[in-house]
Amino acid sequence: MQTKLLQEHAQMLLDTAQVECVIGYSLSPRGLTRPMFIYRGEDVEQLVWNQHSSHNLAKYLREKIVDLGDTGKVAVVLKPCDTKSLNVLVAEHKIDRLRVHVIGMACSGVVKDNNQERLQDRCVECEMKQPLVYDYLIAAEHTPEVSPGEFDQDSWQTEFEDYSSEQKAEFWLAHFDRCLRCYACRQVCPVCDCPTCLFERDDSLWVGPGSSIQEKRMFHLGRAYHLAGRCTGCNECERVCPVNIPISKINQKLAQVIEGEFGFRAGIEAVPSPLLTVVSGKEYGG
Amino acid sequence: MFEPKIIAFLCTWCSYTGADLAGTSRKSSPWNIRAIRTPCSGRVSPEIIIKAFDEGADGVIVLGCHIGECHYDSGNHRTAKRIPVLKSLMELVGLEPERIRLDWVSASEGDKFSKVVTEFNETIQALGPAKWLTKGVGVDVPVLDETKVLQREG
Amino acid sequence: MITRNLNDNCWLPHLGKISSIDNLGPEIKLLRVHLANGNGHSNEEFQPGQFAFISAFGVGEAPFGIASILTDDGSLEFAIQRLGNVTTALHELAVGDLIGVRGPLGNSFPMEKLEDKNLVVIGGGIGGAPLRPVIQYVNNNRNKFGELTILWAARSPSHLMFREDYESWRNIPNTNLHLTVDQPDDEWDGHVGLITELLDQVNPSSKNAIAITCGPPVMIFYADKLLSELGFSPDNRYVTLEARMHCGIGKCGRCNIGEKLVCVDGPVFSMDEVENFLEGYF
Amino acid sequence: MNYIRQEDLHNWLADIGEEYRLTAPVEKDGVILYEPIQSLDEIVWDFEKPVNSIKEIFFPQTEILMELQISGNGSDEIKEVIPTEKNILLNVRPCDAHGLNCLDAMFLDDSPPDVYYAARRQNSVVMGLSCSHMGESCFCTSVGGSPGDTVGMDVMLSKYEEGFLVELLTPIGEALFSDLPVTEQVIEVESPFEKGLFPVPNEEILKKSFDSELWGMQAERCISCRICAYVCPTCRCFDIRDEVVGGSNGTKQANRIRCWDSCASEAYRRIAGGHNPRASKIERLRNRVLCKLYYYPQQYGMLSCVGCGRCIDACPVGMDITEIMSVLVEGPA
Fold first, then answer.
1. Which of A259, C13, C240, D166 is least surrounded by CB atoms within 10 angstroms?
2. What pLDDT does residue B7 have?
3. Three-state DSSP class for C212?
């Protein structure tokens, strides 16, 4: 039902030339839901919206706006959690909000890649069914409800609390050992977009070309730190990791710390992370 | 007796001169503090601290000017926000948060400098060497049990 | 020093001792290297246009065209402009330090094909380095070649390469040297402007002539376009192409332009080859 | 056809383990990877295909080529580090072994041969396990392979009742496995189900479509990460750099390291001075697909795609080389 509404709205936008491109989801020949870019009205029937629309399409906004020169507008299909990424991008002046037409989708959760019946972790505990920011809302009268199922947060969080520091180090090193340094976690992240990443310098100042386990840990810690107060918990980094490293657990931990220290949650409104601004009254610490 | 390797990042406007003052006024401070002079405490980015532990440090202390006294007026604000976040990140990944410390030492507080630094040295001595490295970095550092961690050698 | 003889481990560089360093201009140095354990690896094997991988130990390796074929004590010369990590490290070395030399690599200018032809040599900036051996080769066998026209360009007079050779080049019989710079300084009285303007002005005849161009890709692109307008047919125009390389022996797959590998099938290409490359070089 | 029971194979592997390093698919956190194993019960016997390929054993993600002793006063030393470990690779899928052939064509047959790859290749024995069915993303039958293919293997095992059929294919295989407790049995094995074929564009289709805008449509969703090259059994681009690992009072120790790289990443073709001939991801995707289907065969004589489908499974945004191939052949749908 939402697919129908989405297609009609996209057709209207394209035919009236309000936008030059609609970024949405479509089905690949193998039936896989994946990002799609529509430029002509008659291609809109390729657009779909289903329980597999997991990609955070805010990732493509910046390069698409640059592609369209300095006038064109872009329409993008965003889930409620993706709109938080949009807020972070707007807060950091990375994209011009006026050039983005947000098609907000009410969302009842997206499923895991390998296990169709289980909602992703972020959706089980998500209480924000409506997008924060939208120019056009496609409500969800009766999207098929997938049983949330129990969330295995406790299996990971509590049993980890009472680890000794050495056990924690070895737990993470065992995960980082599998890292291929393919940088998919960095490339899929909408807010992780430095022109030349700190960890990809030719002079190997921080991390060399080798893949010793310490260099992988340095990369993951440095990346997680650079997302402190900016990561909105879309968990795409964990979904795309080919070797299942629980990357978003690190980001979630830092999000909790930022909320504890500064009472700030990334992306709720277009305000930059407290780490990027000078201390204000109540924030004084140390 | 375990002699910890401690890296001290001293802001050149306040803490570095505070350290000199501690020296000239004969305040004792432990010898194993390796001081690194930085233009401001805000210059100490988290990667530098992580890199210090990767190179075999047991403790890192960052000393800057008091809030409001910063030569660049907001450098120490940034550090004040960064270090707690970094401490919890390192704690998540297995480094005791007490190994990183942030404090304000102005140019006139020679005795505070030696007190803070000696105190920090004792806490690190109590904690023992940092269980952070998987292979020695040219020095004899206790390393994590490699076989348990690295299924793949070489 | 080296545990195994050289030729079966293709990655092992020869150790070369720097015998002299002189400044060719701002940020450009000429390193003369004597191959310490080259086991008789003298420089005759280096043909004009070939390159070698120079290792700055502790930093890495990078490809550099040889800048001369003629040294009495069998050493090689490399002109190195400070741009990246390896070049910066090389600039910090002193006489007597060791560097690694892996080469000769790539193909060379077809000197036999150029015989009894008029030659037009167009060099831009650091791109002049691989052309200097060509000029030296022509000078050594002057009677084999027709008229030699050298067009030499650089950003500024101080950036002009091999200034101290200009006198000897002008004295080569039947040879004329044309210089141009983009930004002149006060003592500069020569031509000012891009090399394409100089080429237009010199207007070398294309009858029985072959042109060789080397320099930044943008310069090669436009100079070559002009040469074809002046009547030089594609098989009479040669270029040395620059690509990012990490092995020089056709393994790392980095320097491919279409199906051609610049390090093995090049770096010297004739324009009729380049024109039916699948991918553009620029 | 020889036949061996599972337990016999198990104990036989136990004692060969001392002399050789056993590498097999192991399951870690829900991911099946080719890794050296610590104990025999880690070996996974029924699986489709591991996430990584056996390329990692012969051409590891990072390997030290030389150790450099830099003392600066003209007496530097280079010591090459030639690998000596001897491997037995178990449960190797036919597509991986086929991939090994592709790498051989480049590392060994094309001169000069690579000493490090050759040392590992000569000290390794490949023990294959044929596929019982073709996976969802497999298309090896379209590029000259098949679920039961024995190319590049020394020994081939095929599941049969509660044991395996054994085919000894090469002298190395015969020598090493001569003492395998096998029983002679005449058994007919029907070849596993062959899936429909995907069209593979030939040379002049690829040349003709070089500038077509379908590359743009396909590459638009690419996020330029390196997964497809790192999981691919035949992608072999690498980078060589020195990494200083220690040093005291004036002398430095450094390792010359060779590590993987991928043409999908943005800085792959950037030359000194910042010029990047392949700046856009469209050109990079085109280069990757053409390298597999046209450049590699031109340069080294073998198609360098073995149809394992790992890049299809691993791609975060669902890009699919079989889709690109069929679009090239049939034109945009």
1. A259
2. 95
3. strand
